[in-house]
Amino acid sequence: MQTKIPATIVTGFLGAGKTTLIRHLLENAGGRRIALIINEFGDLGVDGDILKGCGIENCTDDDVVELSNGCICCTVADDFIPTMEALLNRETPPDHIVIETSGLALPQPLVRAFHWPGLKTRVTVDGVVTVLDGPAVAAGTFAADIARVDAQRAADDGLDHETPLSELYADQVACADMIVVNKSDLLGDGTAPLVARLKSEAREGVQVVPATMGALPADVLLGRGQGAEDDISARHEVHHHHHHHDDDHPDDHGDHHHEHGHDAFESFIVDAPEVTDPAAFAVKVADVIRDHGILRLKGFASVTDKPMRLTVQAVGPRVDHYFDRPLGGDPRGARLVVIGQAGLDQAAITQALQ
Ligand SMILES: Nc1nc2c(ncn2[C@@H]2O[C@H](COP(=O)(O)OP(=O)(O)OP(=O)(O)O)[C@@H](O)[C@H]2O)c(=O)[nH]1
What we know:
Layout: E1 5-11, H1 18-27, E2 34-39, H2 46-52, E3 64-67, H3 76-88, E4 96-100, H4 108-112, H5 117-120, E5 123-133, H6 134-138, H7 146-155, H8 164-174, E6 178-182, H9 184-187, H10 191-201, E7 207-210, H11 218-221, H12 243-248, E8 265-272, H13 278-292, E9 296-302, E10 308-315, E11 318-326, E12 334-341, H14 346-353
Parallel strand pairs: 1-4, 1-5, 2-3, 2-4, 5-6, 6-7
Antiparallel strand pairs: 8-12, 9-10, 9-12, 10-11
This protein binds guanosine-5'-triphosphate.
């Protein structure tokens, strides 16, 4: 009997630490051949670049497939399924497939795609890993917790009280087999109470684990054997497909093409001159983020007189920057993707960053 290839879905909100967790996993894969499918919100391919540049043995550029044609959960049939089939049809198929969703994806449609005839007999969902930004959850950034959202739905089927953030959060948590409370370094003593709270809210059998920089052993993340596609009903979407949005989008066809609040978010790219002082630039980025309520900002820059490329990574008010690799032939300058709730003042943000 042919055994199915396991696939792990890694989901979680923008900047929670999905790419960091996957990178750690690749570095500690214990000889497994892992293929990655990654889908990013914002067209810069930062995650793909970070993972491709990893230089990790057993992980060649061929093993990283970027799906940048919109949100993975909305283009399942067009993009995701053919990509999976291509991976499975390789002469040497991978031992394990890891799928990183965009921070705005609902994982449920992806799990459901594993029922597709071409996939069902060959691949199975080993587990859904939902990465949370521990400090953001503790601070109530996603506001409504699941119990409250459920109560609210029971009381009133109009979804209008929910923010797009709390919707995504609730759906991503509802789908999880494992919840990773990441950035526990920033939570300190707040970690244990948050883990306990999430455990009490999670479905039966869901594991809740704290992590820093997504550093979890491969054996913890992989090989769960969950077969998530067979109990999709347990992972109900707290939020259904926003048919009121579908009505606004006459091109939408079928329920794999719902909009589920993506239109509540937007992203754009800013090109700026090269950076002279990385520390001062990080302070400027933090100011712009605060002034404009930006959720996520990331990208690359050259720095005057420096041969290395600067990576800039910001999640809410926290800005990380570090040199990651030689610039090589990259043009000098800065290229950043900015992501936030719809209505960002793009002109003002662009000007401030330039
Ligand atoms: N302090 C701290 N920072 C972290 C941790 N994990 C990730 N980060 C940082 O958080 C930022 C975002 O991490 P990513 O791994 O890119 O997050 P992501 O979920 O892949 O982001 P998107 O793909 O944009 O949704 C980076 O600057 C990371 O270095 C952690 O445990 N502690």
